[in-house]
């Protein structure tokens, strides 16, 4: 959990720039923002220690790697108090890449990535149905991802 931290304009600019291109060197980012690379390094370290920056990720084209099925699963729990134990069990399923505790019709909403429909069927039938506390699920298969982006961090 991120601690409360007073972020200044430079912190927000660093976050904004690195969300756009995490491969940029601290020296190049410093030049772009008119500060030293050392200043960028210190600020990134401060943001990491505060839990705001949690590392960097490689953006991979999953379809190019053979993952052709993306689906979303609405999960109904028997009781909302089972959320923590069910979430822990769902985390053990590697195909589930994102899980949210939600309001509305579902208690939980998960994103799942599979190579094909057979793998999706296996996860739904053989993995999810074994988890105690799940009453039922509803699955939505994604036909196309139109876009994916980070939230816009404003620099005031």
Helix and strand pattern: HHHEHEEHE
User: What's the end-to-end separation, in Å?
Assistant: 24 Å
Q: In angstroms, what is the radius of gyration?
A: 20 Å
Determine the fraction of residues in helical runs and give it as a percent range: 25-40%
The CATH architecture name of the largest domain reads 2-Layer Sandwich
**Major β-sheet profile:** 4 strands, antiparallel
Number of helices: 5
Global mean pLDDT: 91
Corresponding CATH superfamily of the largest domain: Lrp/AsnC effector binding domain/regulation of amino acid metabolism (RAM) domain
CATH topology descriptor of the largest domain: Alpha-Beta Plaits
Structural class: alpha+beta
Number of strands: 4
Major sheet: arrangement of strands:
2-3-1-4
Shape: elongated
Task: Report the top-level CATH class of the largest domain.
Answer: Alpha Beta
> Unreliable runs, pLDDT <50, ≥5 residues?
none
- Count structural domains: 2
Please state roughly what percent of the residues sit in beta strands, choosing from under 5%, 5-15%, 15-25%, 25-35%, 35-45% or over 45%: 15-25%
GO biological process, one term: response to amino acid
Pfam families: AsnC_trans_reg, HTH_24
Keywords: DNA-binding, Transcription, Transcription regulation
Protein name: Transcriptional regulator AsnC
């Amino acid at each position: 959990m991120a601690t409360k931290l007073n972020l200044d304009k430079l912190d927000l600019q660093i976050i904004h720039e690195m969300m756009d291109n995490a491969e940029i060197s601290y020296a190049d980012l410093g030049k772009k923002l008119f500060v030293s690379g050392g200043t960028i390094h210190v600020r990134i370290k401060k943001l990491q220690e505060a839990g705001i920056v949690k590392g960097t990720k490689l953006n991979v084209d999953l379809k190019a790697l053979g993952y052709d099925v993306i689906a979303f699963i609405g999960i109904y729990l028997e009781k909302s108090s089972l959320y923590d134990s069910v979430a822990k069990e769902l985390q053990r399923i590697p195909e589930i890449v994102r899980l949210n505790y939600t309001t509305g019709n579902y208690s939980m909403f998960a994103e799942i990535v599979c190579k094909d429909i057979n793998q999706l069927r296996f996860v739904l039938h053989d993995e999810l149905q074994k988890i105690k506390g799940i009453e039922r699920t509803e699955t939505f298969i994604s036909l196309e991802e139109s876009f994916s982006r980070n939230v816009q961090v404003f620099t005031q």
